[in-house]
Amino acid sequence: MTVSTLTPPSVQCPECGGHSIVEYKPTVYRCLKCDFEKDLSVPPEPSGAGLGSAIMGLAGFGLVLLILL
Ligand SMILES: [Zn+2]
């Protein structure tokens, strides 16, 4: 693996690993190599929701087990 010291540490593309990420729009970053696009204006799914549903699913599973046993 060769590490280029000429390339300044910048945003690395998660798709192709290239440092070709440009600010396409104020909130959108785009890779020039593989057309990877990341829209930062879209909020990521709240982690609490996923965890909550997982716990609810687990609780429901436990409840079914209790009923069956
Ligand atoms: Zn890329």
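^ zinc ion complex. Residues 47-68 form the longest helix (22 residues). The chain has a mean pLDDT of 80.
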